[in-house]
Design a protein that fits this description.
Elements (H helix, E strand, L loop, with lengths): L2 H15 L7 H12 L9 H22 L1
Helix pairs in contact: 1-2, 2-3
């Protein structure tokens, strides 16, 4: 339940800056949907957490590329 609000704020902020689609935006939305489907007491496994981190880093690079 700690990650969902952060990712929701992230996608809202990104949308406020640019309406353009960018590489990795879909990953943010995918994780929002996934986290929304989890119960509050559920936790991501180590592999899931690593995947989330990797995909968020990729989304950051994609977003940064739209600003150049």
């Amino acid at each position: 339940d700690a990650l969902h609000p952060l990712l929701a704020e992230l996608i809202q902020s990104v949308n406020a800056v640019t309406g353009a689609d960018f590489e990795g935006r879909g990953a943010i939305v995918k994780w929002l949907i996934r986290l929304n489907g989890m119960r509050a007491q559920e936790e991501l496994g180590e592999g899931e957490a690593r995947e989330l981190g990797f995909e968020i880093e990729g989304a950051y690079r994609g977003f940064k590329g739209t600003l150049n």
